[in-house]
Fold:
Amino acid sequence: MARKVAFNTRVSEPILNEFRALSVLLDRNLNDFFEEAMVDLIRKYDQDNLIVELRKLKAKAQKRM
Structure:
């Protein structure tokens, strides 16, 4: 399992309230929802695997240093 890091952001109160209600109904914590949403968005928008390519380029650049 990947190491977890703190992440802080601001969201609209009505959306957060709906997330909280959903977490109670499904007996899951908010962090699970945030991580699931992030993964879904990455899959949705990274159809060309640009993130993987960017990581490769970054690793290659770091090796040169």
